[in-house]
Amino acid sequence: MIKQFKTLEKLAQAIVKADPRVIEVIIHQDTPNSPLASDEVFLVCYLNHYGITNDLTVYEEEAFSWGIDIYEKVAGRIAELGLSEKEIIITPFNFDLHRQNEYGKYFRSLFIQDGYEPILSIADRELKKREQDFGEEIEAYDTGLDESDDSLPAEKEAGRDYSVSEVVEATGINKRTLQGYLKTGKLQGYKKGNRWYIPETELEKFQGITA
What pTM, to 2 d.p., does this model score? Predict the structure, then answer.
């Protein structure tokens, strides 16, 4: 297995030579097999290219062509290393695809430029932070949805904003469902402190759609 990784490290160096923007080359797999056990070898390249790395639309427009171009440039080296019988798939790294678990459970860095942190460490840290932020946001939603607003008059006045409790009472929608509507934008509202409010105009639009 060590010999196989050494072979792939040489290929990774050829990829970096073909495009100096490559910061890191990773091999990823869905199962813990030896790197050349499968007929397909997936090499993910962290590029110094903001659009491809961070924007899925740019990735979808440019990644395929980039991978084909790099493959053509290193095809000779692939043959020299005895990998011609394998389907070598070279693709750039993208944060959105990482969040979608597209890069497999098992991976190993084959090459990384000096002074750089492994991209998957960065991506995992970012994902953890996103999950933490999302959890805090949900908690804030729950707080806002659970609190009643006694400062607003019980009688609904034209053109005013309604508390969550009032919307629940008026529509019969439970708080969890209402939370989903607010988060997806199906129902427009705004947050003031820890409480959510829905403008009367938005509530009328929503009731017109769901009627």
Answer: 0.61
